[in-house]
Write a structure and sequence with these properties.
There is one protein chain. The protein is mainly alpha-helical. 65% of the residues lie in helices and 0% in strands. It is globular.
Length: 68
């Protein structure tokens, strides 16, 4: 649990969030279905399908950072 206070851990988590959100945006822009995007997230990021769906459903505000 202490790694959560490590600046490197925080930066890595923020970067992973950015990557996942970029992949979701790219998939939507490319016309992929939600299922195709979810399957991509599961394969690339070792997520469960349920968690990948949560990422797809997530609507961030400008001040919110989603932890993965």
């Amino acid at each position: 649990m202490l790694e959560m206070y490590n600046p490197k851990y925080v930066n890595d988590a923020e970067r992973k969030t950015e990557i996942v959100m970029d992949e979701i945006s790219f998939g939507r822009d490319a016309g992929l279905s939600e299922k195709q995007i979810r399957d991509l997230l599961v394969r690339r990021h070792n997520m469960t399908p349920t968690y990948a769906q949560r990422c797809l459903d997530y609507k961030p505000s400008e001040n919110t950072v989603m932890a993965l």
